Amino acid sequence: MKSTNLAFFGLFGILIGMLSGLILSCAAPLPRVALFAYNLEDPYIASFVSQISDQVGNSFTLETYDARNSQVLQNEDLELAVKEGVDLLLVNPVDRLSAYGIIQHARERDIPLIFFNREPLATDLALWDSTYYVGAQAIQSAVLQAELVASLFGGNPQSLNLFDRNADNRIQAILFKGEQGHQDAEIRTTGFVETMTTMGFDLEVLALEVANWDRAEAYDTSGPLFANFGSQIELVVSNNDNMALGVISRMRQISLFEDTNQNGRVDQDDSGWIPVIGIDGLDEAVIQIEEGYLYGTVVNDSNRMATAIAELSRVLLGQRSWEDFPFPLTNEKYIWIDYLPFSRGLP
Ligand code: BGC
What pTM value is reported for the model? Predict the structure, then answer.
């Protein structure tokens, strides 16, 4: 090619480049989405929020607000975002009963809402069409937890295996509950006890502690329980992994885990090993399952919920249509994501 032609094409290329730069800078700005987390110190929520931000990619800008467990603070942040006219609100409420006010407020400015993790009352969600909830049905996690326990104790309620340490054919358990009034804490606790009973197991609840989803609280409150009930305890059931990890720290501190068979690791073959079971599937919990301290967990699939939230956001922002929407929408409001059991030996 002659050099004059080369120069022409070079110039042409530069012009095209400048033109597309100009068009891009004139293009409409990306939609603005504001996300409100109840508390980013909660490891489940922190990882959930970072999964949402990963899934969003470049579809819209995402501003995250941390309420640090204060509904007052969350209301202030929400008010500001609504005033600024953001295009969509993603809300993990501190108090699920606050949803009523939040929905009314958003409706006045016609800003759609997706709630997640803390489920508003159905009557509140019904207040306005552009309001959705993405989450999991807590009863499913309770049933899966009970099934993991049933299989660990041999599966036959009439004749428990050696994990029934006092051989009385009853399972003596201590339970750790999340925050009172939270749909997951309430349903997981009663659901676990009821499912064990329905399956025919004789569960004796030695103690039920409320530890507010929190590791340090579970560590603190479990100390007196181990002191009082000692070797009577055959099972620890927790509404989430974070509290289960707190209890495990306590159990390690008072030397309840010992490699009695000297195979170089703690596991359920060691005599005196007490099963602890959680819910969520935190990375740290998976490590403790591998190490033998945590018997199992039930995955509260935030990764899939994050995908659902990102896809639903795109629909509400007009970036995609409902056609081929990859998640079933129940009652035009709910996207339910399944829990999955997880313990050593299970995939
Ligand atoms: C999770 C907990 C978390 C809580 C926060 C629950 O679904 O299992 O780990 O602390 O949500 O709302």
Answer: 0.91
